[in-house]
From TrEMBL:
Superkingdom in the source lineage: Bacteria
Coiled coil ranges: none
GO biological process: DNA-templated transcription initiation
Residues covered by the RNA polymerase sigma-70 region domain: 34-99
UniProt name for this protein: Sigma-70 family RNA polymerase sigma factor
Protein family per UniProt: Belongs to the sigma-70 factor family. ECF subfamily.
GO function terms (MF aspect): DNA binding; sigma factor activity
Organism encoding this protein: Streptomyces fagopyri
Domain RNA polymerase sigma factor 70 region 4 type as annotated: residue spans: 130-180
Keywords, in A-Z order: Sigma factor, Transcription, Transcription regulation
Length: 200
């Protein structure tokens, strides 16, 4: 499904950064080019996390509306990690809105369904101590953590998504885990096991 009509004026080899600069200047053709480049894999990943096609379509559309509004704030060359961060957050928001609507429609009490492990992780990444700690590490390390830990991508897939060598992915993943642990320790020690599931 396309949100935009085909438009011309941007070369297929234009970088994500160049397209985002054009979007920040109000260029809808650049947004359409970004959509064509990234909507397919975003839709696939969202579908793996949500079985409702309508919610997936809404989240995908909301993601690109957010890109339109905040393209000027993007830093870096590749947009993939940034786009997925937006989409994952929109999915968490959509699920919460759906749960609130469902609770409002219930006429008799029924215990709410327990959130899935994935929903708890995504919520923690945005609102919990992990989210606060993630905000304290650099964006390039954060992108690697989101791709490898939240999305479960391999080193090769992460390298392709972020446009960096596989060795850089491994190095950043180790640094990101170490920095995240330090940031979590700074927020307050807890007896919980590492949220990253293993040693750095």
């Amino acid at each position: 499904m396309r949100l935009f009509r085909p438009v011309r004026g941007h070369r297929e080899d234009a970088t994500d950064a160049a397209l985002l600069r054009a979007v920040a200047d109000g260029d809808s053709a650049a947004l359409a080019a970004l959509y064509d480049r990234h909507a397919g894999w975003l839709h696939t990943r969202l579908t793996r996390r949500c079985g409702d096609p309508e919610v997936v379509r809404e989240v995908l559309q909301d993601t690109f509306v957010t890109v339109w509004r905040s393209a000027a704030g993007h830093r870096g060359t590749e947009a993939g990690g940034w786009l997925w961060t937006i989409a994952a957050r929109r999915l968490v928001d959509a699920r919460r809105a759906g749960e609130r609507a469902l609770r409002a429609e219930r006429t008799e009490y029924a215990p709410p369904p327990a959130p899935s492990a994935e929903e708890r992780v995504l919520a923690g990444l945005e609102y919990g101590d992990v989210g606060t700690a993630l905000d304290r590490i650099s964006p390039e390390l954060r992108e690697v953590l989101r791709a490898t830990v939240v999305d479960g991508l391999t080193t090769r897939e992460t390298a392709r998504l972020l446009g960096i060598p596989e060795g850089t992915v491994k190095t950043r993943a180790m640094r990101a885990r170490a920095e995240l642990r330090a940031a979590l320790a700074h927020l307050g020690p807890s007896g919980d096991p590492s949220p990253l599931g293993g040693p750095a």
